[in-house]
Amino acid sequence: MFERFTKDARAVVVGAVGHAERTGAEVVDEEHILLALLDREGSRGSFALASLGAAGRRDSMERSLAEARRRGGLSRADTEALSGLGIDLSEIVSRVEEAHGVGALGSGNGGGGGRRSRRRPFAPGAKDVLTRSLRAALARHDRHIGDEHLLMALTARPGVPAEVLADHGVTYEAVTRVLYGGGEAKAG
């Protein structure tokens, strides 16, 4: 599948691995893909993010991602579902952090100690984003998978990255409208 990735999409995948390495994460996940997308400039994905006003809001997105990590990687929908079962996640987080320190529920971070020589695998969610990006490209009859397809896949998949993007005005519908028409400027 990677032979179908554009230079920009490959740069996002490499950037995601880099984000995982810098944070000491055991696996590359969807959050790392989102952060790598936010790093891009001059690509169709970065055009969509800028057009939707999200390009200058990286700090806010990083804070939202950090808060989700603090909740053990659970989205607000997950938190609400647990609340419906009588489970107060904020109380659980408080108790765990009281006993083990702030951020103890952070998912996948190995503390960032020493260098690792082996490759980090892609988490199932990140693999799903890559698969969905292929589907997004095929649905648009695009011959290659670009970083815009990775962005579309992130927005179409339930979870924390889609939630963070939506909170900043970046939804599947908005990205599609910006990239493929519907009254707004079209990416070249």
Automatic annotation (TrEMBL):
Biased composition (Gly residues): 103-114
Annotated region described as Disordered, given as residue ranges: 103-125
Residue intervals of the Clp R domain: 2-188
Keywords: Repeat
SUPFAM superfamilies named in the record: Double Clp-N motif
UniProt name for this protein: Peptidase
Gene source species: Streptomyces olivochromogenes
